[in-house]
Structures are given as structure tokens and as C-alpha cells.
Amino acid sequence: MLRSLRFQLPALFLLGVVVAGLVSAAIALRLFRSYAESRARAQAYQEVSREATGLTQLYGRRAGRKLLSAKLLELATGDKIFYQPRARGIEPFPGQGPAFTPLPEGVLNPNARFGDNGVTFVFRPPGSSTKLLAAARPLQVGKKVFGAIVVAKPETVLDQRWLALIERLLIAFAGGVLVAAAFAWYASRRITTPLLQLSAAADEVAHGNYDVEVPSGGAGEIGVLAERFDQMASRLGETEELERNFLMTVSHELRTPLTAIRGHVGALREGVVTDDELRAASLTVIAAEAERLERLVGDVLDLAKLDAHRFTVLQEEVDMERVVDRAYVTFTEEARRRGIDYRRELEAKPVIVSDGDRVLQIITNLLSNAFRWTPDGGSVGLELTATDGSVYVGVADSGPGIAPSERERIFRPFWSRGGGGTGLGLPIALELAAALGGRISLESSAETGSRFELMLPTRPR
């Protein structure tokens, strides 16, 4: 479970949120603490200053009368009250003893000038570990100043306010973590669910089931991944089907000439054929079928070399007019026999630097495809043009045309329209054209048929 993406994603998200929250909280607390402490300290000084002012006014008016209980005043205010005489022996309330706890010596100068706002300071009483925030105001009876009343409160009051703030921040932080955890769980479900579906689909593909459907993961990266996976599964299925079709096609293509060869060889060996003309005809059939086998094996070998990038391309001067003529002559007898209008147009006579045998192979493959799909009585055209440092060989037919969905497939190895042929001619032509620095383009419609155009540079690029 700990290695599961469904656990790791929210865990990492939460860890990032917690770390970011702690760093942000530490910085914010440090800044806010300085601000809060200064403000709390100022507020504490205002409070003790106000209380000190009130006590000095109260005791100044009660001179000569019974004093109020200092303990009761401390209990009512919650603060410590001290008295600092101006000089020894000078008491504003003679005969009644000290009204408040005497301020330790050395804390406040008896002759200090208090000004309008009195004096504020911090001190630690003897025997105590707690600092006190204090404010002193002069105790004046009539026009005579007898000393100062000091009101002080513990500095721990600031810590108490600070702790209250920390408690609130901790509660807010815990709430934020809970919200982040809920969001992380939701986000991880959104991300991992399509990934788990992709994983299940990958298992199906690994077991040979390519007919799988992966629900779209939306418009983001997961959606693109699901779309690419669907395309990959479809291509794998098509590849496996092509391989099966290729095996059946090659088996058929091999069996047909082998059956003919074996039949004629058997007849010759058994002496069934005794006439010289029939014997010559049998030998002609054997030679033709052997050539057919040789072409099939050559096509498969060429495709394997092209896929492995081990194909050797020669660089020689090639008379394109002569190459086109050779390819044209190859199909004149078939055109005559099937009543096909077979024409050629040579608008230029270029000479290029390329591999002449491979150029002839490309044109022958294109013409073979055209004759295969052209009905008897149709038309096939072959033309040669040159412009802007390139030569163009066009092969047009009056066949049924190629559907848009099949225009990319016909250049895949072993794929054949109608299930006939090996499906190697056009793929080999396309790869050879690319190896020679050219390309093959296609225009097709059901009304006019198809037109393949081979483009080759006059010089290697």
C-alpha cells in the first residue's frame, strides 16, 4: 500500500502542505510576535500608568485620613503596588505606617523627574525570577511631593497573550491540514483512477487482448496518455492482424508457384510430357514461377534491410528517360492483353545522381499497383517532368480510388486492399524514395482514380 500511487500522491501533497505551512507559520509567528509583544507591552504600560495615576490622585486626596487597604487594591487590580519615598522619614500618612510595599532600593531614583506621563521601567524584585512591567507616578499632597506610587504587573502577561494566539493558530493549522487532506484525497482519486484503468488495460494488451477501451481522462496529460494508449493498442492489433495476413498471403504466394513447379517437374521426370514444344512450355512456366519466387523473397529481404537501416544506396548518373522507358516496356504486354489505354508523357529528359536500379524498382512497383487496380479497358498513364532541381514521375490509373481511411494504411508493410497480394510493393517504394532523398505523394478520388507521384532530387542533398 505504501508504494501505491494512490497513497504516495496525497502523502507527498500533504507533506508539502505541512512543510510549507510550518515554514510560513514560523516566519509569520516571528514577525507577528515582535509586533504583538511591542503592542502588548505598550498596552500593559498604559494600564499600569493609568492605575498609578488614579492611585496617586486617590491617596493625595486622603492625606491625614485613614488609608485604604493596599492588599485590597492589589486584589482588585490584579497588580503589584509599591511605594518609593522621596527621602527617609518623609511620610504623607504619619502614624499609619507604609501604605504599600516599599520599592526595592536602586530600582528608581527618588529624585527622578516624572514629567507629565510618569516613568515606565522593568525590574525584578529581590528573590523573584519574574520581571515586572512598572509605571511610577509622583504622590503629591498639596504642592509637596512625598514620593512615587509604582504599579507593576508580571511580564508573563505577554506570554499568556502570546500562548492564546498560538492556540488559535494551531487550531487554524489543524483545520487547514484537514482541508488539504480532503483535497489531496480527491485529487489523487482523480489522477490515479484513470492510471489504474490504463494499468488494467495494459495487462489486457500484455495478454494479447488488443480490443480494450480506456475511458478518457479529460483534456490534460492523463487524457492525452489515454488517447495515445488507445492508438497504440489499435496499432498493435493491426500489426498482429497484418502479420497473420502476411503469413497467410506469403504462404499462398509461395504455394502457388511451388505447386506449379512441382507439377511440371513431376511431369517431366515421369515422362508424361514427350513433345518438345510442351516440354519447352513446361520449362518456361518453371522459369517464370521461379522468378516470381525470387521477387517475393527479394521484396521481403529489401523490407527487412530498410527497417534495419542496412540498405546500400549507390550514387551514379541516372538517365531518367531511359529508366522510365524500361519501366514502361515491362507492362506493355499486360496492357495490350487487357485492353488498357497505356500512355507515357516525357516532358523532360533529366539526368540525376542516384541509384538507377532502385529508381526503376520504385517506378515498377507504382506501375504494378496501378495495373492491379485498373479494370480491363481502363487507362494507366506514366509521365516524367523536371523543375527546380527535382524530377517528378507520375503514375495515374482509372481504378476505384483509395478511401481516405486507407491512404495511410496502404504504405504499411503486409497491408493489402482486398486481401490480395503481399502488401509489400508500396511500402518498399515509399522507403526507397525516402532513402534516395525523395518522397511519394498520393491524390485519389472515386471518380478519377489514383495518382502517385515520385519526387527525387537531381543531386543528393
Class by helix and strand content? alpha+beta
Strand share of the residues? 15-25%
Low-confidence stretches: none
Radius of gyration: 52 Å
Apparent shape: rod-shaped
Strand order of the largest sheet: 2-1-5-4-3
Number of DSSP helices?
Answer: 9
- The multimeric state of the shown protein is single chain
What characterizes the major β-sheet? 5 strands, mixed
Helix content: 40-55%
What is the H-and-E element order?
A: HHEEEEEHHHEHHEEHEEHEE
- Tally of strands: 12
Mean pLDDT: 78
Distance between the termini: 57 Å
How would you describe this structure to a colleague?
This protein is 53% helix and 18% strand. The chain is an alpha+beta fold. It starts with a helix and ends with a strand. The protein has 9 helices and 12 strands. Helix 6 runs parallel beside helix 8. The chain has helices spanning 5-61, 70-77, 156-206, 221-270, 276-307, 320-330, 332-338, 356-373, 425-435, and strands at 80-85, 101-102, 119-123, 132-141, 144-154, 316-319, 341-346, 351-354, 379-387, 390-397, 439-445, 449-457.
Q: Which helices and strands appear, and what pairs or packs with what?
A:
Layout: H1 5-61, H2 70-77, E1 80-85, E2 101-102, E3 119-123, E4 132-141, E5 144-154, H3 156-206, H4 221-270, H5 276-307, E6 316-319, H6 320-330, H7 332-338, E7 341-346, E8 351-354, H8 356-373, E9 379-387, E10 390-397, H9 425-435, E11 439-445, E12 449-457
Helix pairs in contact: 1-3, 3-4, 4-5, 5-9, 6-8, 8-9
